[in-house]
Amino acid sequence: MAQRGLVSASWLAGMLAKSPANLRVLDATFHMLSWNRNAYQEFQSERIPTAGFFDLDAVAKQGTDLPHMLPSPEQFDQAMHDLGVGANTHVVVYDCSDFGIFSAPRLWWTLRAFGHDNVSVLNGGMQQWKTGQFPLETGTVQEPPQPDAAFKSNFRPELVRSLEDMIANRDQPSVQVADARSTGRFNGTAPEPRAELSSGHIPNSTSLPFTELLDNDAKVLLAPEALTQVFQAHDLDLSKPLIATCGSGVTASVIAFAAQQASGADVAVYDGSWTEYASQPDAVIATSE
Fold first, then answer.
1. Measured between alpha carbons, how far is 202 from 244 in angstroms, rounded to an integer?
2. Beta strand pairing call for 176-179 and 242-245
3. Cα 128 to the center of its chain, rounded Å
4. Sheet strands side by side (includes 242-245)
5. Could you give the CA distance from residue 55 to residue 265 in angstroms, rounded to a whole number?
6. How large is the angle between the packed helices 104-113 and 252-263, nearest 10 degrees?
7. Where are the alpha helices (DSSP H) in 174-245?
8. Residue 282: CB partners within 8 Å, gap ≥ 6?
9. Residue 154 and residue 164: Cα distance in Å, rounded?
10. pLDDT tens per residue across span 53-109
11. How many CB atoms lie within 10 A of CB 182?
12. Residue 105: closest CA among 95, 118, 117
């Protein structure tokens, strides 16, 4: 079954069996360093048939210490060309995380930020693909297809927030901010994965761990009605503007994707997220200790 921006493993398997010209599957797996996993090696070992690999760290802004920040439009256009994605391509993104959905929404958001709305997330990712016992591809990675029209970025600034935006909103709150990190990291009671950063949160933000948006048994996104209830339980109103943040802009995209699934809302992502904010010498950090 397919719905706006979300497809099931059975739907994707059925589509791939038809070899459609304008469907491109991309593995957007990103693993935290502490997991001791190599996303590209796993992709080379096994993948959904015909898939290409999108490297979040390689296709990123140059000349910054911040991880996987949005690339320039020119860099992204080249990456899409190299991966066989064109202007008319329906892109389906997935990841191989233990969560079912973790980093794939980051590429979903990136494509939309560059003006390409014809993108879907595979619900449950590789976990659901394997659960359904659908075929896996091994060995040599297939050459990417040649799209019928070149990909051309059309940047949408309303989907992206900067450090300056977050500081302004912190000091004069006008937009809701949802933080996808764990409750402990948000409260300042658990350490950050990046040891040089203090934990805590941006004042006037709300904790919404991304795992609450998932069915953690089935490893899929919650249904739209259940997603709405989660947002409401955290006093987040999807009829009003919302900014998502996290550690480095990855799981913030899960919030953005879940909000879109629940209500059609376009949620902006703070690209630099906590890594950028907390690294500022004068960062104002709130805790709940």
1. 12
2. parallel
3. 18
4. 160-161, 268-270, 242-245, 176-179, 206-207
5. 27
6. 70
7. 183-187, 224-233
8. none
9. 23
10. 999 999 999 999 999 999 999 999 999 999 999 999 999 999 999 999 999 999 999
11. 18
12. 95
- Euclidean distance between CA atoms 54 and 57, whole angstroms: 9
Catalytic residues: 246
DSSP state of 143: P
Query: Which residue carries 């997603």 as its tokens?
Result: 227
For residue 275, give the nearest of 207, 190, 202 by alpha carbon: 202
Is the CB of residue 266 less than 8 Å from the CB of residue 165?
Answer: no
pLDDT tens-place string over residues 95-135: 999 999 999 999 999 999 999 999 999 999 999 999 999 99
DSSP secondary structure code for residue 33 in this structure = G
- Residue 241 buriedness (CB in 10 A; 0-12 / 13-18 / 19+): middle
The pTM of this model reads 0.97
